[in-house]
Amino acid sequence: MRKQGLVSVVTATYNMAGYIAETLESILAQDYAYLESIVIDDGSTDNTAEVLQPYLETGRVRVVHQENSGQTVAKNRGITESRGEFIAFCDADDTWRRDKLSKQVAAFGLDENIAVVFSDINCIDGNGDPYEIPPMRRVGGRITADLLLDNFIPFPTSIARASVLEEVGGFDENLSMSIDYDLWLRISVDHLMHHIPEPLANYR
Protein backbone atom coordinates (compact mmCIF):
# COMPACT_ATOMS: atom_id res chain seq x y z
CA MET A 1 0.00 0.00 0.00
CA ARG A 2 1.25 3.48 -0.87
CA LYS A 3 2.11 5.64 2.15
CA GLN A 4 0.47 9.05 1.93
CA GLY A 5 2.94 11.91 1.84
CA LEU A 6 5.97 9.63 1.56
CA VAL A 7 8.43 10.48 -1.22
CA SER A 8 10.33 7.54 -2.68
CA VAL A 9 13.57 8.72 -4.26
CA VAL A 10 14.82 6.41 -7.01
CA THR A 11 18.49 6.50 -7.95
CA ALA A 12 19.50 4.21 -10.79
CA THR A 13 23.26 3.77 -11.00
CA TYR A 14 25.82 2.03 -13.13
CA ASN A 15 29.53 2.52 -12.34
CA MET A 16 29.06 5.90 -10.66
CA ALA A 17 31.04 5.19 -7.50
CA GLY A 18 32.85 8.52 -7.82
CA TYR A 19 29.64 10.55 -7.53
CA ILE A 20 26.94 8.52 -5.82
CA ALA A 21 27.90 9.42 -2.24
CA GLU A 22 27.47 13.12 -3.03
CA THR A 23 24.12 12.35 -4.62
CA LEU A 24 22.88 10.40 -1.61
CA GLU A 25 24.08 13.05 0.83
CA SER A 26 21.99 15.65 -1.01
CA ILE A 27 18.94 13.38 -0.86
CA LEU A 28 19.33 12.54 2.82
CA ALA A 29 19.87 16.22 3.68
CA GLN A 30 16.40 17.25 2.46
CA ASP A 31 14.36 19.38 4.84
CA TYR A 32 11.39 17.19 3.87
CA ALA A 33 12.11 14.24 6.15
CA TYR A 34 9.38 11.79 5.10
CA LEU A 35 11.30 10.05 2.34
CA GLU A 36 12.88 6.76 1.45
CA SER A 37 16.02 6.49 -0.68
CA ILE A 38 16.18 3.53 -3.06
CA VAL A 39 19.28 2.77 -5.12
CA ILE A 40 19.03 0.37 -8.05
CA ASP A 41 22.55 -0.84 -8.78
CA ASP A 42 22.32 -1.95 -12.39
CA GLY A 43 25.22 -4.41 -12.36
CA SER A 44 28.02 -1.97 -11.52
CA THR A 45 31.54 -3.36 -11.92
CA ASP A 46 33.37 -0.57 -10.07
CA ASN A 47 33.43 -0.10 -6.26
CA THR A 48 29.84 1.13 -6.05
CA ALA A 49 28.92 -1.60 -3.54
CA GLU A 50 31.75 -0.50 -1.27
CA VAL A 51 30.66 3.15 -1.41
CA LEU A 52 27.05 2.19 -0.65
CA GLN A 53 27.86 -0.06 2.33
CA PRO A 54 27.99 2.71 5.00
CA TYR A 55 24.55 3.91 3.90
CA LEU A 56 23.18 0.38 4.16
CA GLU A 57 24.53 0.08 7.68
CA THR A 58 22.71 3.24 8.79
CA GLY A 59 19.44 1.92 7.35
CA ARG A 60 18.79 5.20 5.55
CA VAL A 61 19.22 3.81 2.04
CA ARG A 62 17.78 0.65 0.52
CA VAL A 63 19.90 -0.93 -2.25
CA VAL A 64 18.65 -3.35 -4.88
CA HIS A 65 21.31 -5.13 -6.96
CA GLN A 66 20.43 -6.51 -10.38
CA GLU A 67 22.22 -7.71 -13.48
CA ASN A 68 22.96 -4.93 -15.95
CA SER A 69 19.68 -4.38 -17.79
CA GLY A 70 19.76 -0.74 -18.84
CA GLN A 71 18.35 2.46 -17.40
CA THR A 72 14.69 1.91 -18.27
CA VAL A 73 14.59 -1.46 -16.52
CA ALA A 74 16.50 -0.07 -13.54
CA LYS A 75 14.18 2.92 -13.15
CA ASN A 76 11.08 0.77 -13.49
CA ARG A 77 12.50 -1.55 -10.84
CA GLY A 78 12.84 1.50 -8.61
CA ILE A 79 9.19 2.40 -9.18
CA THR A 80 8.18 -1.16 -8.30
CA GLU A 81 10.25 -1.10 -5.10
CA SER A 82 8.86 2.27 -4.01
CA ARG A 83 6.26 2.63 -1.26
CA GLY A 84 5.60 6.37 -1.46
CA GLU A 85 2.68 8.41 -2.72
CA PHE A 86 5.23 10.37 -4.76
CA ILE A 87 8.27 9.16 -6.68
CA ALA A 88 11.23 11.43 -7.37
CA PHE A 89 14.20 10.64 -9.59
CA CYS A 90 17.81 11.59 -8.95
CA ASP A 91 20.46 9.89 -11.05
CA ALA A 92 23.74 8.92 -9.44
CA ASP A 93 25.77 11.92 -10.59
CA ASP A 94 23.22 14.67 -9.87
CA THR A 95 22.45 16.53 -6.63
CA TRP A 96 19.54 18.40 -5.04
CA ARG A 97 19.05 21.64 -3.21
CA ARG A 98 18.01 21.07 0.40
CA ASP A 99 14.48 22.47 -0.01
CA LYS A 100 13.66 20.68 -3.26
CA LEU A 101 11.19 18.11 -1.98
CA SER A 102 9.43 20.38 0.50
CA LYS A 103 8.66 22.91 -2.23
CA GLN A 104 7.54 20.27 -4.70
CA VAL A 105 5.32 18.27 -2.35
CA ALA A 106 3.59 21.51 -1.36
CA ALA A 107 2.95 22.24 -5.05
CA PHE A 108 0.94 19.03 -5.45
CA GLY A 109 -1.57 20.53 -3.04
CA LEU A 110 -2.41 23.28 -5.52
CA ASP A 111 -4.47 20.94 -7.72
CA GLU A 112 -5.27 17.24 -7.39
CA ASN A 113 -4.82 16.89 -11.16
CA ILE A 114 -1.12 17.81 -11.02
CA ALA A 115 0.80 14.65 -11.91
CA VAL A 116 4.38 15.92 -12.15
CA VAL A 117 6.20 18.82 -10.51
CA PHE A 118 9.51 20.00 -11.98
CA SER A 119 11.78 23.01 -11.69
CA ASP A 120 14.61 24.87 -13.33
CA ILE A 121 18.10 23.41 -13.01
CA ASN A 122 21.75 24.33 -12.65
CA CYS A 123 24.37 22.54 -14.73
CA ILE A 124 27.69 21.44 -13.23
CA ASP A 125 30.76 19.79 -14.68
CA GLY A 126 32.56 16.68 -13.48
CA ASN A 127 34.21 18.63 -10.67
CA GLY A 128 30.95 20.15 -9.50
CA ASP A 129 31.70 23.59 -10.90
CA PRO A 130 28.75 25.46 -12.46
CA TYR A 131 28.61 26.39 -16.10
CA GLU A 132 26.14 28.48 -18.05
CA ILE A 133 23.67 27.04 -20.52
CA PRO A 134 21.31 28.93 -22.84
CA PRO A 135 18.02 29.82 -21.11
CA MET A 136 15.10 27.49 -21.84
CA ARG A 137 11.42 28.33 -21.81
CA ARG A 138 9.53 26.14 -19.35
CA VAL A 139 5.78 26.16 -18.75
CA GLY A 140 3.28 24.30 -16.60
CA GLY A 141 -0.35 23.23 -16.92
CA ARG A 142 -1.52 21.42 -20.04
CA ILE A 143 1.79 21.25 -21.82
CA THR A 144 1.61 18.51 -24.47
CA ALA A 145 1.82 20.97 -27.37
CA ASP A 146 4.79 22.77 -25.80
CA LEU A 147 6.53 19.47 -25.00
CA LEU A 148 6.27 18.37 -28.62
CA LEU A 149 8.61 21.25 -29.47
CA ASP A 150 11.21 20.46 -26.81
CA ASN A 151 11.76 18.43 -23.65
CA PHE A 152 12.07 21.21 -21.09
CA ILE A 153 11.54 19.03 -17.99
CA PRO A 154 14.95 18.40 -16.39
CA PHE A 155 14.94 14.80 -15.20
CA PRO A 156 16.71 15.33 -11.84
CA THR A 157 14.06 17.88 -10.86
CA SER A 158 11.08 15.63 -11.54
CA ILE A 159 8.71 14.21 -8.94
CA ALA A 160 5.52 12.39 -9.91
CA ARG A 161 2.48 10.84 -8.33
CA ALA A 162 3.15 7.10 -8.08
CA SER A 163 -0.43 6.38 -9.15
CA VAL A 164 0.13 8.20 -12.45
CA LEU A 165 3.43 6.43 -13.15
CA GLU A 166 1.64 3.12 -12.63
CA GLU A 167 -1.29 4.26 -14.77
CA VAL A 168 0.94 4.96 -17.79
CA GLY A 169 3.15 1.89 -17.27
CA GLY A 170 6.36 3.64 -16.24
CA PHE A 171 9.29 3.92 -18.63
CA ASP A 172 9.10 2.25 -22.04
CA GLU A 173 11.68 -0.55 -21.84
CA ASN A 174 11.87 -0.70 -25.63
CA LEU A 175 13.61 2.68 -25.65
CA SER A 176 17.27 3.40 -24.91
CA MET A 177 17.21 7.17 -25.47
CA SER A 178 14.77 9.98 -24.58
CA ILE A 179 13.10 7.73 -22.04
CA ASP A 180 12.00 10.60 -19.83
CA TYR A 181 10.74 12.65 -22.79
CA ASP A 182 8.53 9.77 -23.83
CA LEU A 183 7.23 9.41 -20.27
CA TRP A 184 6.40 13.11 -19.88
CA LEU A 185 4.57 13.19 -23.20
CA ARG A 186 2.39 10.22 -22.25
CA ILE A 187 1.59 11.69 -18.83
CA SER A 188 0.88 15.17 -20.21
CA VAL A 189 -1.98 13.99 -22.41
CA ASP A 190 -4.36 13.54 -19.46
CA HIS A 191 -2.67 15.35 -16.58
CA LEU A 192 -1.34 18.70 -15.43
CA MET A 193 2.36 19.42 -14.94
CA HIS A 194 3.56 22.11 -12.55
CA HIS A 195 6.71 24.19 -13.04
CA ILE A 196 8.61 25.83 -10.16
CA PRO A 197 10.69 28.64 -11.73
CA GLU A 198 13.85 28.26 -9.67
CA PRO A 199 16.75 25.77 -9.83
CA LEU A 200 16.21 23.02 -7.26
CA ALA A 201 18.77 20.54 -8.60
CA ASN A 202 22.19 20.26 -10.19
CA TYR A 203 22.62 18.30 -13.42
CA ARG A 204 26.09 16.94 -14.10
List keywords for this structure.
alpha/beta; 204 residues; globular
Description:
The structure is a single chain. By secondary structure, the chain is of the alpha/beta class. 31% of the residues lie in helices and 30% in strands. The protein is built from 7 helices and 9 strands, in the order βαβαβαββαββαβααβ. Strands 1, 2, 3, 4, 5, 6, 7, 8 and 9 form a 9-stranded mixed sheet that branches. The longest helix has 11 residues, at 48-58. The radius of gyration is 16 Å and the shape is globular. The relative contact order is 0.20. The mean pLDDT is 97.
A few lines on this structure:
The chain is 31% helix and 30% strand. By secondary structure, it is of the alpha/beta class.
> Which sheet architecture does the biggest sheet show?
9 strands, mixed
* Overall shape: globular
Strand content: 25-35%
Mean pLDDT: 97
Give the tally of β-strands: 9
| Poorly predicted tracts of residues | none
Quaternary organisation of the protein chains: single chain
Which structural class fits the helix and strand makeup?
alpha/beta
Write the layout of secondary structure elements.
Elements: E1 3-13, H1 20-28, E2 35-42, H2 48-58, E3 61-66, H3 71-81, E4 84-89, E5 95-96, H4 100-108, E6 114-124, E7 130-131, H5 144-149, E8 159-161, H6 162-168, H7 179-188, E9 192-203
